[in-house]
Amino acid sequence: MIKLDAATVLLQWATGGLLFLWFTTRKHEMSAGYSWLIRASFLVLAAGGAAAGIATDFLPIRDISAIAVAVVSLLTIRRKNVHLDLVAPAIGFIGLIAAAVHATDGASNITVNLLRVLVGTVFLGAVSDAMLLGHWYLVQPGMPRKLINEITTAVIYMWPLEVVVLLLPTGMISVLNGSVDDGWNGVLGWFWLASAVVTGVLALVTRAALKERSYSAVMAATGLMYLAILTAFCTDIVGRALLA
Known about the structure:
Elements: H1 6-25, H2 32-56, H3 60-75, H4 87-102, H5 110-139, H6 146-167, H7 172-176, H8 187-209, H9 216-242
Helix pairs in contact: 1-2, 1-3, 1-4, 1-5, 2-3, 3-4, 4-5, 5-6, 5-9, 6-8, 6-9, 8-9
């Protein structure tokens, strides 16, 4: 089976968020302030992941990678070279691969666990950065609408992948049909299913809202992404916790 811990989740969140910082800024259409905000935010999460790992179950590659992600984010916090933004997530993925392999009891589960950790990282990063980017339109209202359209589209593409990797055996189908006991008479399994469906619906509604030309459409999309973060984390964390 698969072990889920806070250190890995925080490193996932930081790595995914920093990856989508590069995705958003790669065309040099954002102000430097947005980059500073994202690096600082996910720097804290990476540091928290390292602290959690060291305090509870030290895994050298994962936790040293988390420290390195935080350090690189700090050193590049005011840099304008967007290509440097790929360094921190690259380091983070190394730590996450190590964490995924370490958390797997049987060799047959390694591929499934790797997929769940890596896809979950990208999925959570896309959803988080979509919300943060929507807020940045308040600071820089002249930004092209295509920036938030692109990251919302990324969320839509990642959503089915996230669901599929959690359905892979032994997966959430086993929870839903009772083969795996969720400890709540099946309630948590159905909660996961509802969260997964609602996340996809919210992403699609956000994309539809952004087709409106008014500025308020971006604010509506941001609000929808707030909700999507909650349901997305429930989809990923609850699913992986039930399968632990």
